[in-house]
Amino acid sequence: MRNPRIHTSAPLQAGQTVILDDNAAHHVGKVLRMQPGQPLELFNGDGSNYPAELNEVGKKQVTARVLREEPSTCEHRLRIVLGQVISKGDRMDYAVQKSTELGVDTIVPLTSERCDVRLKGDREDKRIRHWQQVAISAAEQCGRATVPVIAPLASLGDWFGQSHSCDLRLVLHHRTEQALDQLPPPAKGIALLVGPEGGLTPAEIAMAQEHGFRPTALGPRVLRTETAPVAALTLCQWLWGDFRE
Question: I need a labelling partner for 12 at 20 to 30 A (CA). Which of 80, 89, 169, 212 fits?
Answer without folding.
Answer: 80
